[in-house]
Amino acid sequence: METPTITVSMPQNNAQALFEKEFMPHLDAMYNFALRLTNDEDDAQDLVQDTCMKAFRFIDSFEPGTYAKAWLFRILKNNFINDYRKKSRGPSKVEFEWVEQSFSGDEDQEPATHADLHAETVNEMLGDEITAAIQALPVDFRMIIILCDLEEFSYEEMARILDIPIGTVRSRLHRARAILKERLASYAKSKGYY
Amino acid sequence: MKKNCNHQADCLKLIQRIVDREASPEEEATFLANKEQCIPCQEGYELEQSLRNAIKSSCSSKCPEALFARIKSKLFVVLILISILIPLFC
């Protein structure tokens, strides 16, 4: 791994203290996000490590008092797109046998509003089944669902992290959920949940 | 009690904004007051909440201790390098 070019200009102690106080508490969330993006534990670890080194390198551009987690996630996402996306592993197909499709259509296109899926069915499903369903989604949809449902970022924060307009956040999220529900519904049906 | 919702697409978008805490308090209060009268809205609301809870409980992983330690030690090395290099160039 390359040693980062050192551009930290704030006093070292301050930089280290700021890093440990503001950034280290988000390591679990960063690792989890990286794991969902890469589908591989080793790649996820490398991605988090690279992100931390980049964050430290550009720590001067972080404004204390702003949301450190959103800042870190933006770096992580950019890092993933630039360096990891091409080599990321595909989703596990062991259980779901779902083929990852490229949803190249218009993102604002209205998704189906009603999948034949009920809350009780989702509640009965095992954690592994839900995880596999998420992992089988195309990465842009997987990304927005994790940011919203797991990390609870606001639409505005997601727009900044993903570099997309807030309207696209809404439509992408809506579409991601529609696809997830459709897939869970057909999986539930095939496994005899109802 | 309505068995069909005439505004299902719009209601679903509102339900998701409520679950995402992006709806205004007025929008949320109006929806919650009306949902008891509409089966599709009631079921839609329960489904979106269940889905969110299921994702929350099944997609969380903790950062391995070894990675945490590796990042800290790498940071320490970078700081040592800075403390050696900066006096040489200043």
Query: Based on the structure, what is the oligomeric state of the protein chains?
Result: heterodimer
What CATH architecture of the largest domain in chain A would you give? Orthogonal Bundle
Intertermini distance of chain A: 51 Å
> How many whole angstroms does the radius of gyration of chain B measure?
25 Å
Number of domains of chain A: 2
Listing every helix as H and every strand as E from the N terminus to the C terminus, the arrangement of chain A reads HHHHHHHHH
Instruction: List low-confidence stretches of chain A.
Output: 1-6, 91-106
Averaged pLDDT of chain A:
81
Q: What structural category do the secondary elements of chain A indicate?
A: mainly alpha
> Based on DSSP secondary structure assignment, what is the total number of beta strands of chain B?
0
Report the β-strand fraction of chain B as a percent range.
under 5%
Taken from the alpha-carbon principal axes, the silhouette of chain B is elongated
The rough form of chain A would be described as elongated
Secondary-structure element series of chain B: HHHH
Count the domains of chain B.
2
Query: Residue share in helices of chain A?
Result: 55-70%
Evaluate the radius of gyration of chain A.
19 Å
Under CATH, the topology of the largest domain in chain A can be stated as Arc Repressor Mutant, subunit A
Describe the structure.
The complex is a heterodimer of chains A (194) and B (90). Chain A has 2 domains: 12-84, Rna Polymerase Sigma Factor, Chain: A; 92-194, Winged helix-like DNA-binding domain superfamily/Winged helix DNA-binding domain (Arc Repressor Mutant, subunit A), CATH 1.10.10.10. Helix content of chain A is 61%, strand content 0%. Chain A contains 9 helices and no strands. Chain A has helices at 12-23, 27-38, 41-57, 68-84, 119-124, 127-135, 139-150, 155-162, 166-190. The N and C termini of chain A lie far apart (51 Å). With 90 residues, chain B is mainly α. Chain B has helices at residues 8-19, 25-35, 39-58, 65-89. Chain B starts with 7 loop residues before the first helix and ends with a helix. The chains are: A mainly alpha (194), B mainly alpha (90). The A-B interface holds A 3-4, 6, 8, 12, 15-16, 19, 24, 27-28, 30-32, 35-36, 45, 48-49, 52-53, 56, 110, 113-114, 117-119, 122-123, 125, 127-128, 130-131, 134, 145-146, 148-150, 152, 154-155, 170, 173-174, 177, 180-181 and B 8-9, 12-13, 16, 20-22, 40, 43, 46-52, 54-64, 67-68, 70-71, 74-75, 78-79, 81-83, 85.
